[in-house]
Inverse folding.
């Protein structure tokens, strides 16, 4: 392709008989080709130089700055991600340590409560045992005292019943002996 373009231009330059030039197209007339080529080269050279020296470096700098900024943002994001992961691990460790401490406190509290409950239970059982012993003693004393009281009451009631039935008063010693004999036989059963 490179060889064809200069060849075509060369042939066109030496061709004196051009149909288009006669038709009124001066750009195809060979006498204007040198000036047209000069201006074409000058304009393209200025355009090339302005693009290569001014616009393309600015675009390249902008692209480089953008790439640099993206790289910095990615590095910063990576640092934040690592920092966040580190903080998350610290947080999980803190939660784990706190859970262990809570379990330890709960276990210690439970042990202390069980100890207090057992101590109060032992104190209560001792007090209960004292009260039961006291009540048993009172019952035994009451049984001992009640048998004599029952005998006296039985003697009085027997004397009055016999006196009411028979109309005569009996000897207290005979009533007492009868009541004692009956109470010995029957009382041992109940007391």
């Amino acid at each position: 392709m490179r060889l064809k373009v200069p060849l075509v231009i060369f042939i066109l330059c030496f061709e004196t008989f051009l149909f288009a030039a006669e038709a009124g197209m001066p750009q195809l007339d060979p006498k204007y080709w040198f000036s047209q080529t000069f201006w074409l080269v000058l304009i393209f050279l200025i355009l090339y130089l302005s693009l290569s020296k001014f616009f393309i470096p600015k675009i390249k700098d902008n692209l480089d700055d953008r790439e640099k900024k993206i790289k910095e943002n990615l590095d910063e994001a990576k640092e934040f991600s690592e920092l966040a992961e580190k903080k998350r691990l610290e947080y999980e460790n803190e939660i784990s340590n706190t859970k262990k401490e809570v379990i330890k406190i709960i276990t210690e509290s439970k042990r202390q409560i069980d100890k207090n409950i057992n101590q109060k239970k032992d104190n209560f059982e001792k007090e209960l045992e004292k009260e039961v012993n006291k009540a048993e003693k009172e019952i035994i004393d009451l049984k001992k005292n009640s048998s004599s009281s029952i005998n006296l009451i039985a003697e009085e009631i027997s004397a009055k019943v016999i006196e009411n039935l028979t109309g005569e008063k009996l000897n207290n010693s005979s009533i007492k002996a009868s009541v004692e004999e009956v109470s010995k036989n029957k009382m041992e059963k109940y007391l």
